[in-house]
């Protein structure tokens, strides 16, 4: 639980930009209207903003070119110095675990930038070696890997292919030669002679004694013979006792000799087989030695290959029969389980082939591999099978390389999200990086789901730099939850979603726009268009002082503007084309927004933009639907009654309020207590609600508005409904920055404009948000014409004065507020409530009230 | 032209024959000649006598050289089983080829031999017993028939499939042309027939050539005739040089070589004798 909390703390501290804004705000001291700072920045808190501040326009005349055709190319490195430095370090560090996790918002050009950096680095590095799998003649289940210098694998594979082809012709020819036949005949004759000599001698000896050697269905037998036939039993019985005894003795003696001869037969057969084998071996050796000599010479510098060729030669000599007779599977070897290959090679010959796993011939520099589907198999390779006689069989030739093999000696780029969702991809990658070797093993074997015999190829040493690309959340989650992650990915390359809108960066951004236009084959942009795109980039960043680093969004805008320009017949994209593209984009996705605006116009959703109301203020929220965000005014109301000093958040009570919203309300209560509860307890109960909201409410950006509604209700002072308010508060009554300020202002402006701009209407925003303003041009124009106002406020009191038209009032040394001020009204009402809250006072009041009623009555 | 008329092909086997190949080959010839197929299983009388003797024992490789009993009852059972197997093989092969077939068991070799003398019958026997320990082959009952060139007998080389050399032994009689015709019918598959004519006392090479021309025309076969010297070694050299499909020689054999030696040396598939 502690770990989880610490993770969340860090996550919010590092990810949420709002927090950073708040810190920034806290560091900004109040600025008075006549101060040099105010003069420099051009606005004063508590006063309506000049139109020029509402939209930080980009002046085309400052850009210094006519169209983007004049601009040179620029890479994707603009404004991402931190990430670039990290990636450069990561790819330069050739140490274990210094892999890179690049994270940042989508569309920030991470892939492009990483590709650029890797290509630059890879070009300076040598091409890695080739890798092959060959048969392991000692244990066919464990194919051996061969590391060959770049470009040597294919020649070896071809040479071995030629060797087999030559052997298939050359060996049968050698065995057909007269010399072989003669030598074989000699062996056969020797064998036969040996038999005939032994059995013939025995037969001759038996015949001399009147005994014949007969062939029985199972073997041999000795029997007394007369006239070429075995003596009938009755005749035998008729022989004299001496004759019968002699025959019996002779047969027994001969039987003993026959047994001795038969017992020697297995030895003779073994000797015969060995003699034939040796002859075959000698005959084969001549042919194989000759054919292998050429390969040995070509690969003499590679000890591993030479050793393998030695084993190949030994195996061919052992299995020469495969070449001279119909090939059959070799016992216990590859042939025993190997399939006939797709090229028709029979199993027994496949064991001499070379399976080129990685061929880097012709490659310049180190490889950069991007695997789109990083499953276990696609990373570490797979062992394929072929159907043979109804069974699935495999051999080393069916080991297929994975992305790690291809990237070995170079760089592997993976999408982290896909890696984590792919089938065992993440675990397999970690295993490979930890062990620094690629072990190709099937998923069934890995999970111990299969008990069948399969291959266990020798692992290949791995030297690869992995670059993962993903969203920040994945980086933080992995850091927190996977103990392997920090060990294996020591370099975090964090991409910013925005860059400073400095003069230098504006120039680079223009080049970036020019590069994107060229890359996408778009029309050039004239400088007005570039200026408009830069403004939109600031708008996309949500900060007038920044530019969006999400290049994909900008590129999309360029493509849409190009389409508009084409429709307008423009040779170059102009600002009007960009503006039209922006408007069209907005229109495409504003159905819900327009519907809400319509309902406000029809008073279905009640938003008042004129008049005054007690305990009611226009708050502003941002609704995000997919990739679209828009501002939406909401009526916030407060009611106060006698109570125990609690502020009830109705949203929270009905579980529609999020924790941050509840936190805002509690801060509000803290402010009340701090300002008005110093002399006694607050005897009130206040309830706050977002009227007509039917979904959840989250965030604290309405806490200022809620406070204003509450103070209005407490002081019974009406709030001018021509204003909307956004901003969060702290316990000291300071207004803090919020997000989505532009959308919120625009949301209220649209409501006012639909009803008619009066010049009174406006939005109170945190002063800290002024720097973020990048409002629509029509709003800036309305402000310039005095028809709409945006008023930055730094304190609650500034807001109260604008909303009520009353001075807020400063307390004197005794802590009392002057008469005629809003704070005085609040304090007085609280005092009344406090009095009513005391039991004796309450009874007195009740008594007087009852009496009065009687008098009235 | 004399024609070979075969009404019945008789295939004879005993307990030391390879029964199935013998039956297959006989059936093939019977089908070629549209003849009936008759199988004879010979129970070797000598073995039954041996089994009845008090010292009747046999030695086999499976007994690792130790002698084991050779009882009459065991021999009866074995003979019965092998006879049944032959009958079964005949039935299967005949059914496949659509032949008329019959089967009988005999214990009397002369009775089997006598079948060769029946007009229209062709007796097929294996030339040698199954060898012991791979190469040594004692004399078999069939050797006796092979040495009696008085009747038309087809001696089948053990392990053949009927596609090797056909050796025809002729003598100066009226039936030698019929025998040669049968040889033509069997020899050489569909390829050109190379006829090697050795010493044929009383017949002559030219007579053989003329007959061969007629048979070749009748069977629609190409052929060539070569003559060989009289002595056995010269004949063997000619066989090796020409690789003939049909050898014609005198039934008395050639000088310096026995008929059995010639069969072994030339790896004849079939010996047809008259």
Structure at a glance:
Chain A is built from 34 helices and 30 strands.
List strands and helices in order, with pairings:
The complex is a heterodimer of chains A (857) and B (274).
Chain A: H1 2-15, H2 17-26, H3 36-41, H4 51-54, H5 81-92, E1 100-103, H6 110-123, E2 130-134, E3 144-148, H7 153-176, H8 178-208, E4 211-215, E5 220-226, E6 229-230, H9 233-238, H10 241-298, H11 303-318, H12 321-324, H13 334-337, H14 347-350, E7 354-358, E8 368-371, H15 376-380, E9 382-383, E10 386-388, E11 391-393, E12 399-400, H16 403-407, E13 411-415, H17 416-421, H18 425-435, E14 437-438, H19 443-446, E15 460-461, E16 465-470, H20 472-481, H21 484-488, E17 491-494, E18 498-500, H22 503-519, H23 527-541, E19 546-548, H24 551-568, H25 575-588, H26 591-601, E20 612-614, E21 616-625, E22 628-642, E23 646-649, H27 650-653, H28 659-676, E24 684-690, H29 703-715, E25 718-720, E26 723-725, E27 728-729, E28 735-736, H30 741-755, E29 762-766, H31 777-784, E30 789-793, H32 796-804, H33 822-837, H34 839-856
Parallel strand pairs in A: 1-16, 1-17, 8-13, 13-16, 21-26, 23-24, 26-29, 29-30
Antiparallel strand pairs in A: 2-3, 2-7, 4-5, 5-6, 9-12, 10-11, 14-15, 18-19, 20-25, 21-22, 22-24, 27-28
Chain B: E1 8-14, H1 19-33, E2 36-42, H2 45-52, E3 57-59, E4 67-69, H3 72-97, E5 101-106, H4 109-115, E6 121-126, H5 141-146, E7 153-156, E8 165-170, H6 176-186, E9 193-197, H7 205-219, E10 223-227, H8 232-242, E11 246-250, H9 259-266, E12 268-273
Parallel strand pairs in B: 1-2, 1-6, 2-5, 6-7, 8-11, 8-12, 9-10, 9-11
Antiparallel strand pairs in B: 3-4, 7-12
Helix pairs in contact in B: 1-3, 2-3, 6-7
